[in-house]
Design a protein that fits this description.
Pfam families: SSF (PF00474). It is a multi-pass membrane protein. The structure is a single chain. The chain has 23 helices and no strands. It is mainly α and 563 residues long. The protein has a single domain (64-386, 420-562), classed as Sodium/glucose cotransporter, CATH 1.20.1730. Helix 4 (68-80) packs across helix 15 and helix 6 (93-109) packs antiparallel against helix 14 (281-297). The model is unreliable at 1-6 (pLDDT under 50).
């Protein structure tokens, strides 16, 4: 995709450029307005803990609606079809509900400013340092994915060299985060959510019309490489890489649905940070639950366009045919599925909305990565290990410097992303390294009071190391799985190794005193510490457990209906 400019150019007109320019004016304007509310580090990093749940709920989902969702999932849709729904209905919603119902009371109630800080309180400095460093590295790498794709849009729109496009995109995102901190990022994410939907919904409807409606799409997909298996979500062999149906289902449910999904949604500070910006425990719990509702239906405007592109756009049809037969050459990749579809079906005006939607998605994703990075760097690394006891304004200044440094680093990591034909392959690999072992440590430490500080950091290192070993074995052809199966296996291995090592180390080391585990371990935390005192007076539509139950029922229905 590095040479995408030679083969893909969008025929944008003046009205399209005007719409994109107007969008950028709004984005920077929100940054300037948000700056007025930044007078302390808590304002900059956590929006003063004052935002309403509906704002943080939309920001929660928009922060994830970056490269992973739009380019990655449309690429998966073009390559695999319906099995991609698993990333939403198996690999997201259940974990989001678990975060809201079970884990947010601990995060919010303990008063922590970040997920690594929770690790320090539960396990001490060893696990804290390992988690903070691995999280910081992961955010720079993932911000690079969003920045690379953001630069690619500028590249195909204006024809600028990719490196120039990446730099321009970086400067725009840097501007509004440095000005307004997390508030600027969150309010922009709410705007970006609506812009993304406004872009992708017309693209889906126009694409379906061009392909002959739903029946036309089913017919064309059935007769395309991959065949009718792309129209059922189970057993998803092509996605998991397992030929055996049982192993495929096991890999998707355990590797993706449990380890990768729960690891990402429940311990990823990028998401948790949005919930921590709210005004109460109930609002913090509702944040991921509110986000779960739009999350269920996003695949209809992300995955379906990828499938349409693979059977409608000549370049994508040729690429998929060649890729299936093992002879793919040239510059086309699955990552470009949605761009080619826009070029094929959107008239001027709608094309501008579509481009603004893609820019919004990648900016939301990158801003989320950078705002989470600057918090962890400032609070968990710089304040904890480099410069203790300085004034609040000093750490606010460090946060702004960290934002600049992270953006510069993301420019360089953006070109690592260019080496992957399907962006989800890269992202799932990163998640198996960082998120899977972290979830194992979290879940064991939250429900087993005997787990020790030494087990916290040794388990994390062992889990991450085992995932890297699986990755190397796969890359050196010691074993081979197509699709994203190797990431599912790496995540499962990392989780199991972390649990086993943590239990073993805990047996031969000393646990923390029980009194120090209040608010950190489920069995030692009184119910009043885990609940909002005003929760009983809330109307039914603001009660987290009831909202989560309705969402769970809906996602079960969707799984059965599409299965």
């Amino acid at each position: 995709m590095v040479h995408a400019a030679s083969t893909l150019r969008l025929d944008a007109g003046p009205v399209d450029y005007a719409l994109v320019a107007l969008y950028f004016v709004f984005v920077l304007g929100i940054g300037l307005l948000a700056r007025r509310g930044v007078s302390s580090s808590i304002d900059f990093f956590l929006s003063g803990r004052s935002l309403p749940a509906w704002v943080t709920g939309l920001a929660f989902i928009s922060a994830n609606l970056g490269a992973v969702e739009v380019m990655g999932m449309s690429a998966n849709g073009a390559e695999y079809g319906f099995p991609t729904f698993h990333y939403f209905w198996i690999g997201a919603v259940p974990a989001m509900l678990f975060l809201g119902v079970v884990m947010m009371p601990f995060y919010y109630g303990s008063g922590v400013r970040s997920v690594p800080e929770f690790m320090r309180m539960r396990f001490g400095p060893g696990a804290h340092l390992v988690n903070a460093l691995s999280f910081a590295v992961a955010q720079i790498l993932i911000a690079g994915v969003n920045l690379y794709l953001l630069g690619s849009i500028v590249n195909v729109l204006l024809g600028w060299p990719l490196w120039v496009s990446v730099l321009v995109a970086a400067v725009i995102v840097l501007s509004y985060i440095t000005l307004g901190g997390l508030s600027a990022a969150i309010y922009n994410e709410v705007l970006q959510f609506f812009v993304i939907v406004a872009a992708l919904l017309p693209l889906t409807l126009v694409g379906l019309h061009k392909v002959g409606g739903w029946e036309g799409l089913r017919d064309k997909v059935t007769h395309s490489p991959g065949g009718a298996a792309q129209l059922t979500s189970w057993p998803g062999n092509a996605l998991s890489g397992f030929a055996n149906d049982f192993l495929s289902v096991l890999g998707i449910v355990f590797g993706l649905g449990f380890v990768l999904s729960f690891g990402y949604w429940t311990t990823n500070f990028v998401e948790v940070q949005r919930a921590l910006a709210t005004h109460s425990i109930s609002a913090a719990r509702r944040t991921p639950i509110i986000g779960a509702y739009p999350k269920m239906f996003i695949p209809l405007i992300v995955v379906i366009p990828g499938m349409i592109s693979a059977v409608l756009v000549p370049q994508m049809i040729d690429y998929k045919q060649a890729e299936t037969s093992g002879g793919a050459t040239g510059d086309v990749t699955y990552n470009q599925a949605i761009l080619y579809l826009m070029k094929e079906v959107l008239p001027n005006g709608l094309l501008g909305v579509g481009l603004a939607g893609l820019l919004a998605a990648f900016m939301a994703g990158m801003a989320a990565n950078i705002s989470a990075f600057n918090t962890v760097f400032s609070y968990d690394l710089w304040q904890q290990y480099a410069r203790r006891g300085r004034g609040d304004r000093y750490y606010l200044r460090v946060g702004r410097y960290a934002t600049v440094g992270a953006t510069v680093a993301a420019v360089f990591t953006s070109f690592i992303a260019a080496k992957f034909q399907n962006m989800m392959d890269y992202l799932q690999t990163l998640f198996s390294f960082f998120n899977a072992p972290l979830f194992a440590t979290f879940i064991l430490g939250m429900f087993w009071k005997r787990m020790t500080a030494a087990a916290g950091w040794i388990g994390l290192v062992a889990g991450t190391g085992s995932a890297i070993i699986v990755f190397i074995l796969h890359k050196t052809d010691v074993f081979h799985l197509s699709g994203q199966g190797s990431s599912f296996v790496a995540a499962g291995v990392a989780f199991v190794v972390d649990i086993v090592v943590s239990i073993a180390v805990s047996r031969v080391s000393t646990p923390k005193p029980i009194a120090e585990l209040v608010g950190l371990v489920y069995s030692e935390t009184p119910k009043q510490r885990r609940t909002d005192p005003e929760a009983a007076t809330l109307p039914w539509y603001q009660r987290p457990v009831l909202l989560a139950g309705i969402a769970l029922a809906l996602v079960i229905v969707l799984n059965i209906a599409v299965g």
